[in-house]
Design a protein that fits this description.
By secondary structure, this protein is α+β, with helices and mostly antiparallel strands. The protein folds into 2 domains: 30 residues; 72 residues, 3-Layer(bba) Sandwich (Hepatocyte Growth Factor), CATH 3.50.4. 27% of the residues lie in helices and 30% in strands. The chain has 2 helices and 6 strands, in the order αβββαβββ. Strands 1, 2, 3, 4, 5 and 6 form a 6-stranded antiparallel β-sheet that branches. A hairpin with a 4-residue loop joins strand 4 and strand 5.
């Protein structure tokens, strides 16, 4: 009977050891130093000597002008500009801008945060932003 108890205890200890190595380590039950990979180590004095690289923004461009076309809806801002080129440049400079409708009579640039469907409208020129 002693061998049977020893065998059962051995099996239990083996099971606990296997659990500890698989589950316990995954759940940080084992005491070990925490590693933080989201923040680089700072040299003494708190100054960083390595520049933090920013991910490059994709190059964007505007579509060919859609003369006598409006893209109604999706307006988030309107800007008075001198011409269509300035309207397109303003849109390119803002991440939120996805399309524009330019009123040629009033030089008003309607900036869109979506790409609405086209509709025929004399006096307007529309354009859509594309990322390359």
């Amino acid at each position: 009977m002693g061998k049977a108890i020893g065998g059962v205890l051995g099996a239990i200890l083996t099971g606990v050891a296997i659990w500890w190595l698989t589950q316990g380590v995954n759940q940080n039950i084992v005491n070990r130093p925490q590693q933080h990979v989201d923040q680089p180590e700072q040299p003494a004095g708190g100054e960083s000597h390595a520049p933090i690289a920013e991910s490059p923004k994709p190059h964007a461009r505007m579509s060919s002008p859609e003369v006598d076309t409006d893209r109604e809806h999706g307006d988030y801002k309107d800007v008075a500009v001198k011409d269509l080129d300035e309207c397109l440049a303003v849109c390119l400079a803002e991440d939120r801008c996805q399309a524009v409708s330019f009123n040629r009579a009033s030089n008003q640039c309607w900036m869109k945060d979506s790409v609405p469907v086209r509709s025929a409208r004399p006096g307007f020129t529309a354009s859509v932003k594309f990322s390359e």
